[in-house]
């Protein structure tokens, strides 16, 4: 079989292992304060199946041509893999490689003198690693692994047998019993004189067995059917042997050895070795020392053996399935791990909690037969497997929840038995003392290393006295001799008077500071150097710097005052706090971080954190703080207390986020009675017991780590990453199943992620997208909750089916029947800094899915925190013409400010719009005076009327700052005036208009007025000064013209006027050039720009002609052109003012609407002009001298305007004159009556539309001008916070209804409002009727239940009523949904209503 035929665990397709690598993404969207987290850690993308699997190429030490791997043994606690293999060409030599577990690099290699069928057996017993190996000639040796690794002949036991048989298995059952399987033989050895724990190479034992054939074995057991072992040991040795190849040894269960054949299970008494019980089923032992001990059958039923009656008692069914072959059973103090093959030869991996039997993970079809699992590592929670070609070793982590690692309870064991609280006699930090079997001996155990030593009870006090001062004493070679002496502190340390910079602050007690070199300082004397006043004594502790170095000594001198000594500067510093610093207890430890600007003071009952800037307490964590641990990092402080971690993140020296991690769901049932942390930022160990069992409870250890360990990409859940998905989330609570997000100053949870996922869920998410729609709909309908869970790389079901409208609609339908408050966050980014499903469908221009996504967000995530999803896409949504009316009316883009600092009543009713850059929108609560303090008028009288005022914050920071020009550009380009009708867009435009646009255009307008006034003066002056008096005299039919005096214009006045106008136009020319440079080709898309440039060119031409040829006709024409263009530019500037803006816009709209009609009208003018030309034989008409060629076309136009000239009609022939009058009548009907009224109707329609959208058109004009203004900003200008803040705050009176919209605007508004109100009222009435119907139905059900005692009839009636209820619910839901369509229908009919009203008013005016 080729490598391409192998199916990798978890993977649907083939993975290119040579390119599998750990990808890392730089999250640029995060604040700089948090960037270090994601430069260092990587979020796993589970949508890529290979993300859960780590592949490491495996290379042997020996370059063998034909490799045969015999076995691989994983030693997780030693970080090793043992690889046993041979060369296929030379079977006589075996090799054993010691391979690093992480890198798979071979550390060393050794040759083994073994037969091919032999194998090494590895076992851990009582914390010691042992190796069984058989030499080539049949001698089996038991040796400690450390001695074996060093190739030292320090074996403990030799097992010798006359005949050679391969070693198949070996097991240390207890301290005195070992069983071997050699070929068909099972040999049980008893250590009669010494236990295995006490053995060493000097006390080695040799067991010898002679040859024993099958006939002799059968003869000895023939008389006793319950006997399968016979005693074969020589004198002084207890050895039993069984010759049964059909049996296999399983495990010891209580007092019985369990042997199985193909279909039966035998229980052998561990004393008599007689069969006590035989069952016709195969049973497997599920056991972890004496902590738990179960039997399991092939249907996953768990049993306990009743030793009194020798019967099985079923206690639980682990899993609803069965298996044919159990490949591996691994156990740990907390988990039961099973790998089995089902009926169709597929491997399934299961993990269960050993105490509650809750399934923690399930992975079906984990691998095919082409892969071999060679190790399950319960320490690191890994499963190792290899391919048939053995070119790589792979593993994956099967921890499914951080709760299985963080807060995991590990029993404290001694020789397989859990220590109970009653046995615990004393503890200090990481050392515990507990009873042994001997009354005079205590066991001392180091929880860090697990190392155990025995001491006499009389020396226990001495031990703890010594270890409190020097923990290294436990590992001293003369340990036993040292602790026999009495500890004397007085003679150990020398008193000194100073603390120098090179001194090490080791520890403190009630009154002294201990330094390196066995020195100490009396603190009460040393502190006098500070010359400060102290209210209290001994309220001091050692204080660390931000690098966890013991640099300071802190003392609380007064209730609100801190004094600390810095050994580096040899100086005291005093800090007066505004809050109380002192506690009822003495401080234990303190930390000073001058970069974060905080001081952390730890007491036995609380931890206080103070700001060095504000001198106030910023956090107080209280509780059972004597069981705490502290961690500090770049911008965070973490305090672990019992089963909770509290993490404070700082940004700009202020608390930005608070994350609380709850480790255990059953923490209320547990109690911590000791906690040890060697130093800051090191693992902390807690001793825990169960409350319900009191002192009879077993003792557990729980490890507390820094939250940074949760970023480990090998874990299935990395819960800290989603905590940073939404910037506004200020408080985050994480437990084993959910991440709850809270926003600043809000008590209610805003949203939560469901993170209780398994590997099987990841597989389902990967596979479901390949199914057809029918299967997907069925799957979602049967279990929609499954697709509400968050999986990194997928998001929720909305991310899984982001391209499938049918699936998304099915999810939306299913969740609509659920309580809104019970739903988790549905739409979010799939990974930190990545895209959300909404981003995907926007990029794909899938408008139906976009509308569905927006509806879901507005309905279920209507909070400012989630506006981030839409905010960054707002410009693109506008570009794609998506309807955003519901969005702008929701709570996503706006935040209603309700705060006592913001008065809801005020005498000043002006509307104020201001911008402010904030880190968080909730910070606006403290900014009232800064925002509005100097902008409101003060009341002159107490009797002055008050108005209601509301305050809103526009929550679009991405849109306003990321690309500040884009929003206005998209608004100016849009063809949907509805965008300009909502208050959010209007307020943004008003802010930009009033802040940096209006004043600029007003300034230009005032400058232009200089030009216009000067130009008008120049035109009038030139015209009247050049006027000539002409006198006409007629003599003898001759016209005599005498020229009178000519009034010549003053040349300097003309030059001055031209200079002033030119100076102004040069100013505008520079502006146009700058605009052209910036806009490039886009400059020519604006028609006003053509007018501007033509105006400048025309005026220059006018100046040239005016000074060179004053009386030419071209001068007259160019003057007319300049006049027209000058007033066009005037119209351009008049748009600044709202009163003129809509008129200018209306004029432009009218001409735009008339373009096709005018073209059609000119065609008719051309038609009738040609008819009249033929009819009158092109005769010249005196009225049209100079334009004779166009005379008849002008005649046709005059007819259309009602100006009739009939003089030429009487000169026609009798026959032609009839046709002439007929054509004239047709022309009058067509051009005058029909077309002129058409023009009036079109203009009226255009006027009506402009008036209806008066406000929208006005704001669009402003948007166009803002775009032009913003294009002139430099990159530096775009970063100015006063021009482009990330938030806009609006103050407006609630009763100030703007009347600027005009008559039609008000009418249409009222009409829309009436329709919407009626629809809402109808909808509420239907819902109310729906609820009353439900109450009546349930009332009837309850009445029937009270009056009817027959359960069957009640169930039948209940089902009928429920059926009716469902039908009514569906009917009512259908009716409610139809309301929206009816409203839309009514809105579509408004156009007809408006046109009808126009006609009625026109008739009334006539």
Automatic annotation (TrEMBL):
It is a multi-pass membrane protein. Keywords: Membrane, Repeat, Transmembrane, Transmembrane helix. GO terms for biological process: calcium ion import across plasma membrane. Residues 1060-1252 form the Ion transport domain. One of its GO terms (cellular component) is plasma membrane. It holds the Pfam family Ion_trans. The chain crosses the membrane at residues 1005-1024, 1090-1108, 1115-1134, 1154-1178, 1218-1243. The keyword Magnesium does not apply. One of its GO terms (molecular function) is monoatomic ion channel activity. It is found in: Membrane. It comes from the Eukaryota. This is Wd-40 repeat protein. It comes from Stylonychia lemnae.
